[in-house]
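chain below, 242 aa
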Amino acid sequence: MAHFYIDETLESAAVGDRVSIVGSEARHAVTVSRLAVGESIAIGNGSGLVVTGAVVTAEHTELAIEVDTVDNDERRTPAVFLAQALAKGDRDELAVQAATELGVDGVIPWTAARSISRWEGAKVAKGRDRWTAVVREASKQSLRSWIPDVLDLVSTRQLVKLAEGARMLVLEPTAELTLSALELDDRDLILVVGPEGGIAPHELDALAAAGASVVRLGSEVLRTSTAGPAALAVLNAKLGRW
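prediction:
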């Protein structure tokens, strides 16, 4: 299946139904992807429902299929979240994009002590909207039935609070324990990745005191844009997702 589109308003469907996408999704499908009548595509609602079928209408204003298969996927458990520190340029967005493709269940923007980039005032909503767009497009590219949640921006203090209710894994190159050697249980996971300058010592201490496990990957020091995706690959294997 080479083409996958999302319509969050789609609530249900049955074999034989006509399901459409409209607006910018339809325009992109017809003018950019050049989809034509007879081609098979998938349409999902981002919440587990995916329908497939052959295109019966291909107009700039509407692309419609006749449904021949219906799938409803449950959310995977335990869930894996990425708490990604804000980073300069597009490095945090690159991390979020790759993490989505690798199956992360949610992303948490974090203003770390050493974050050069800051979301303040109107930038808070703008930044979250941008991350939401990134995960949506990455979900389409990777044919994901569930779009990851983009949670509210958190401070370090708020991140520490999250460590009290989930299994938190903090990536730190100097840690003694490796992620691959860590024993997992059925608790949801929050993977924490710092900014370009790393996680500040007082932040590491606060997170560890709240019950977080400080772990490393290998001997290499990865960028903030690649550390999270690399760790997610390890977790996918350990959790049996891969």
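Helices lie at 23-32, 91-101, 122-141, 156-162, 201-209, 224-238. The longest helix spans residues 122-141.
thats it, cya
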